[in-house]
Each structure stands twice: as C-alpha cells, then as structure tokens.
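Quick one, tokens below:
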C-alpha cells in the first residue's frame, strides 16, 4: 500500500506547482524543502527546490538534509531527520545554509545539535526556532503535511505556529509532458535508498500495465 501511495503521489505531483509570495528563501543545495507554511513544496523530498516562496511575517518550513558522507572510508548518502524551522521575514530575500559534514560521525553530531544559518541580503543573521518532526517509518512515504498540522495543533513544540498565522500557497494546475514525467521519475528513483528502490521495483512489477 505504501508503494501504491507513492505511485499515486508521483502522478499527482506532476500536475502541481506553486504560486508567488512576498519574497523568496534560497536554500543550500543539500537542504531539501518539504512543506512551507502548510503547503507542499514541489514534489516533496523527491525534487528538491533551491528557492521557495515565503511571506512577510512568521514563516514555518519543514526540511531535511541529504548529502554524501564517508563511513569506514566508503561514500554513503546521509539523510537527516525532518526539521521544523520557524522564522520571521520582511520583504527581503533570505538564504538558509549549514556547515556540510564530511563523515558519518559529524552527521551524527549534527543530529544531536542541528544548526542552520538564516541570513538576509545584507548578511545579517535571522533568528529562528527549530524542532524535530519525529515519526516512525521511511521518510519517503510519510504524510508530512498531516504530521506538521498535528504538530501545530498541539502548540507545544518550539517551532509550532497557529494555522491562522500563514496562508498556504495554493497549487496551480499545469499540463505535464512525457519528458517531464520521465525526468521526475529518474530523479525520484535516484533519491531513494537501496531498500526503498527495491520496494519500489517490487511495487512497479506488480502494477505494470
């Protein structure tokens, strides 16, 4: 069922986009935006976007970090937990960065004390609050929007916001083309872990037309 949901999500995501907002947040390439102010970003963790729309005032963004690190002299893909960041913006563009890790030990240390840097166009640091969105299961198949909504409704987390404090960016309908579909599917598959690729292949073989 999880793989079926993934397939449906892929098809739906190909026909969605985002509307413009007050300003933009530029992210370091290794930072993957998932949800911004209640709205899903692009196709979630499968198609990272390096610029996302944000609004003046309070904002909330859900992200993960994915990069190559070394473990026992071998390269491996590290995927972080999901982090919720709450911050305020004016009408100036912002950027979000972090210090890249070289080893799995540095990645584990980052998990214990995650640190990001928000800066404006003048290089001034922007304060933010951070929390971890904990959940069991593989990140690829999580309903992040629903989890984040439940987190906010609890109003107990450090990075929680009231639903009324933001307006989710509404999706716009676009007509997908075959080339875009194949590019997206290729990118999706390459971003899965080895176990997830195996599960996806098993699901795909069972659902061939």
């Amino acid at each position: 069922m999880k793989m079926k949901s993934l397939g449906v999500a892929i098809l739906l995501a190909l026909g969605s986009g985002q509307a413009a907002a007050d300003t933009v947040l530029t992210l370091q390439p290794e930072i993957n935006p998932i949800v911004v102010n209640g709205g899903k970003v692009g196709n979630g963790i499968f198609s990272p976007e390096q610029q996302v729309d944000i609004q003046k005032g309070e904002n909330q963004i859900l992200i993960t970090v994915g990069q190559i690190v070394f473990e026992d002299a071998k390269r491996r893909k590290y995927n972080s937990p999901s982090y919720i960041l709450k911050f305020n913006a004016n009408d100036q563009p912002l950027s979000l960065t972090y210090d890249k890790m070289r080893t799995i030990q540095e990645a584990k240390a980052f998990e214990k004390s995650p640190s990001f840097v928000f800066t404006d166009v003048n290089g001034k640091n922007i304060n933010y609050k951070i929390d971890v969105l904990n959940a069991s299961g593989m990140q690829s198949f999580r309903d992040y929007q629903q989890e984040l909504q439940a987190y906010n409704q609890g109003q107990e987390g450090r990075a929680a916001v009231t639903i009324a404090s933001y307006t989710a960016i509404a999706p716009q309908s676009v007509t997908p083309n075959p080339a875009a579909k194949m590019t997206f599917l290729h990118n999706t598959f390459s971003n899965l872990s080895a176990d997830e690729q195996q599960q996806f292949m098993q699901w795909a073989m069972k659902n061939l037309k």
